[in-house]
Automatic annotation (TrEMBL):
Start and end residues of each stretch annotated as Disordered: 622-641
Keyword match Transmembrane helix: no
Ranges for domain N-acetyltransferase: 498-641
Enzyme Commission number: 2.7.1.190
CDD domains assigned to the protein according to its UniProt record, in alphabetical order: NAT_SF
Pfam families recorded: Acetyltransf_1, APH, GrpB
Molecular functions (GO terms): acyltransferase activity, transferring groups other than amino-acyl groups; aminoglycoside phosphotransferase activity
Protein name: Bifunctional AAC/APH
Catalytic reactions on record: a gentamycin + GTP = a gentamycin 2''-phosphate + GDP + H(+)
Enzyme class: transferase
Organism listed in the record: Orientia tsutsugamushi (Rickettsia tsutsugamushi)
SUPFAM superfamilies (UniProt xref): Acyl-CoA N-acyltransferases (Nat), Nucleotidyltransferase, Protein kinase-like (PK-like)
Record InterPro entries: Acyl_CoA_acyltransferase, Aminoglycoside_PTrfase, GNAT_dom, GrpB/CoaE, Kinase-like_dom_sf, NT_sf
Keywords: Multifunctional enzyme, Transferase
Amino acid sequence: MFKVDWEKTSVTYQLPEGMAEKMVRIAYPDETLISSEVIAGGCANLNIKIQLENQNKPLILRVYLRDKDSADREQKLSALLKGHLPVPLTHYIGEFEGHHFAITEFISGISLRDLLLKCAPHDLTALMSEVGMILSKIIAYEFSKPGILNHELEVIPYESSDVIKFAQGCLNDNNVLSVLDPSVIAEIKKAIKQYASSVPTDDEKHLVHGDFDPANILVDKINGSWVVTCILDWEFAFSWSCLWDVANMLRYAHKMPPEFQNSFIDALQRNGIKLPPDWHTTIHLLNLSSLLDLLKQSDPKDHPHRCADIRELINHILSELNNMQKIDRVEIKPYDPNWPHIFEKEAPLIRQALRDNCIAIYHVGSTSVPGLAAKPKIDIIAVVRNLFFNKLQLEAVEYKYRGGFNIPLRRSFTIRTADKNINLHVFEENDPEIELNILFRDHLRENTSARDEYALLKYKLIAEESSHQKNNSIYKGYTLGKHDFIQNILKKSGFNKYRFVLCTHTLEWAAAKHFRDTYFFGPHGIEDPYTWTFNHEEHAHLVLYQGTEIVAYAHIQFWPNQRAAIRIIATDENKRNQNSGSQFLALIEKWLKSLGVKSLHAESRQSSLRFYLKNGYTEVPFNDPENHESDPNDVPVGKVL
């Protein structure tokens, strides 16, 4: 994994006796080389750690075995990026007896690849979030056009169509033909033809590292946590789409825990990088092209391990592309007059199952709007006196419990049989979600233009591949794509109730980041170090809506022994002193209690202490199970739920 078993050119290549010392003398004529040690190398360079007599820190002698322009390119890139990104400075570049070399800064650490393979204790979510954040900074650098960078960082144009032609050309190479079965080559040709349109367009001109993978990322343990200290090996840098670097990083993601990919992608998106809807397909195609190039350069006799790994990776990519075609696709049907009749037959059965707890039953969603195209699933709301009834009551009539998804105080059930396709949403009386759904339904019933506009949006969405995929979300792109339209209708309908949800939509995550930066980390001039919690099972991030406007945010951490902590709770400064914070807190407490949490804790600023005290909190020890250092000015408070 991560090319660890690949045969390296630099491992077998040895510099002639005394050559390293002569190279050092050219760069530092007044220095004496005390020691040298070959430490690492890839397919195109040799790295030697050197110590000079009068230098406090070691240096790296980097010998380029293939591309003579690499030293100049790396020197200019390091000068451009230093101070913004963790890169090693190049102190000197030169040539000796046909060998191009550079003396560069030595930065301590081990490769992220080695850390992952050694299974040393580390927080993978935090590390990959940092890697994603660093890549977003690389992407921020742009050139005049896409292409290859020469030794002066001038762009030599390269067109997207060339990638397809190159990949197709590789399939005729003898090395490729000897490693891959004819059936695999036929499948590759089919995939290239089918997905050629997914190659990034020529209007993208971002800086691309070119070999952005865990082997070229140094990490070190600082203050008890692993952090990125350096991005190495810029000799393959070029200008084009960031998806080349995304593809490189995720090439072995299928062999890693989910947070390897999820945290990396989440960090990119949180830092303003908008990935195209079909990015999964694109990175598979780019990796396929890169692997064919590597295979073309690899004689199976000299590089059996490398060829075997490349063959396995190509087979995995082809399998993934085939699986994408089998995705459960969203299906939209023209309005069916039978939909209301299905509801009318089902409502009495639900009422009977819920007994006296049931107050009302409503047909909602698109199937409740005459003339509206919809997914052929009947959405039903059941209003109950007590939300926490025994779910066996509904399971006895074929319903399967599904949880609450992104709405904490909802209990969702489904029936998926040959003659029934029903989503049942159970809410406690007076829950604002009930009014929200009825207002939306009634607006579409009364406004045919809005109804037809909604239908057009649905058909537009299902034409997009991303609408059928859950891109690191609990919902498919189709559901998320309707968000803005629904919000606009609710605004027109005058909906203005408070409701809270778990962050799901990109706008909700953006709001979470805004609240954290504005009220907590920004005032201290530091970058939020805890964005990795956005994708961690022990952390929950919630927002409070007033109507369609997000007015508050909370970050909850789940602790052992049925305890939880409020890490952040913040209300928009323009919405304070309107009781929204207390309502938000009460909703969170009710939700946590339903999950079995017995006590809720917080470390309150002096300015927030009154808020907690008026909501029933008392001063109690915080007892953080992770023993994070507390601010001595904060007051630990808690409440039994």
